[in-house]
Design brief:
Elements: H1 2-26, H2 29-33, H3 42-46, H4 50-57, H5 61-71, E1 76-83, E2 99-106, E3 114-123
Antiparallel strand pairs: 1-3, 2-3
Amino acid sequence: MVKKAYLRTAEAVIAVVLTFVMITVMIDRETVTQTIRSPENVLDILKDNPDFRACVQSLNHNCINQTLDEQIPDSYDFVYTLSADPNAPVSGLPEKRVYANAVMLTGNTTDSTTQIIRLFYWTKE
């Protein structure tokens, strides 16, 4: 009786090991380990740049576009909104995964204006 118990235990262990091996072989490792990463937060870098802050405070859209274009990788398209209202509507966003960043920039003691820049970017096709 004792030999049969050892054999059945060994069969169960072998079955579990074979099942585990088959599952790990059949699962596509790329889809399991592949994670979707958003690109680096561009506005966190630019919020401390005095030239960019001056562009935003003066509402200079050409300067803002040029600075963002230099910072965002070429594989991304972007749209931004600039207003004092954080709930300003956004148009022109595609039907795909869109990454969003926002930062509020305030003026100094002589210029107390507040601007919120919201950046939306996505991968080009």
